[in-house]
From TrEMBL:
One GO CC term, this protein: DNA polymerase III complex
Pfam families per record: DNA_pol3_delta (PF06144), DNA_pol3_delta_C (PF21694)
Catalysed reactions, as listed in the record: DNA(n) + a 2'-deoxyribonucleoside 5'-triphosphate = DNA(n+1) + diphosphate
Broad EC category: transferase
Protein name: DNA polymerase III subunit delta
GO terms, biological process: DNA-templated DNA replication
Keyword check for Secreted: no
Domain of life per record: Bacteria
Amino acid sequence: MKEIERVKASVVKGKIPPVYLWHGEDHYLRQEAYEVLKSFYLQTDPSGSGIERVSAKSVVPGDICELANSMSFFANRLVVVEEVTYFQDGQTADLEPILEYLTNPNPSTCLLFLADNVHKGRKLYKALDRAGEILEFRSPKRPQDWLEWLQDEVKLRGKTMSRQTVAQFIEWAGHNTGVLNRELDKLEIYIGDRKTITADDFKAVTIQTIEATVFQLLDAVAKRSAKEAITALHEVLRKEHPLKVLTLLVRQVRLLLGCNALRERGGSVSEAPSALGISPFEAQKLWQQSLHLSTEKLTRGLQECLKTDLALKTSGGDPGLLLEVMIVKFCE
């Protein structure tokens, strides 16, 4: 991602900002960037003694500033502040020491703040932006972004993967940059000197996500293919407890109902992520699937889910059989 490239460029030039704020939900990409930044300090001090990590939940802002101002035998220091909650509503820490520090940060120290969520209108955010650099680490959002990101990762390993195979791999392995990178590392070893990664390769090495199998199951339901749906159900049950499988099915059915409701009142797929609390990629898939499942059918399906949930918890019957009966009713 471009954020990592910006960190790499700073390291190559030897010009590290005195203050960084890294935020966003993608912890994997953030960790990758941290490894790049850390390499700069390990060049002059292989022991890593010039690098210090603390938690904002256990160290007060005044002490953090003292750490940043501390002198070291080595020329450069990196102070990493994790679990930063200074931007959340209701935070009570006294931020004045940090605001004062940001007016004249120690040039020999890089003070790195790590936060999941930030409010860009806060005084601290604006002060950090003036004093240093702010980077947002977030997963790709649109289907096109995911495809481009994964193709770039494949190229970095000296391999190739067709666009169709890339799309299939993402569907198979899920939308998590860390998981996809680990699976690509495994595939790189698996295919050896061969350049092209095929669908057969990732199916042999990578375990299909539960969510992907549930999606296939509901696709079969939409086609009224009980045989395909039962096959998909057995695949899911090999990986998860029946109650977890039922929970995933209920979630999927509710999201599909949400798509139908949104469409009925004139809404579009672009509104689905915020309205349903899902990613744009998942919204695209659900929106298309909901076109083939009526609100009436989904409502009946949700009722069957609730009946099956009660039976699983009270009847003592075979869980797999109860779920099979439910799926067959879905397909009727």
